[in-house]
Amino acid sequence: MTILEFHVRLRSKESYNLQVFTRDSSQPLAEAEFDYPLSFMSEFELNQLDHDPKDPVGRIARLCAFGERLYKKLFTPDVLRVWEEKEKASDFLVLCLRIAPEAAGLESVPW
User: Fold this and answer.
1) How many domains does the chain contain in total?
2) pLDDT for residue 41
3) What is the span of the domain harbouring residue 74?
């Protein structure tokens, strides 16, 4: 089993730094930066992902679209390269997301 840790830290108001490590190393394998505004519109979008018994199919479509946008933010070419290398070399690959205290606003995002 291989565990990749994704460490997310606040870089500036709406910008974050991502470093990817193996669980047993302090040397980052990849690094990326991404923007994620924690604004009213983001909150509105997250609320649209909640369960809606009147529109379960629409919710699934919204969840898929949201997940795809989030994936594209995190899995830059360098991060994706590391992920694919570790996936090929391991029987079981685990992603552990660690959000730094100063980036706690990201905890509401449905990772």
Assistant:
1) 1
2) 52
3) 2-108
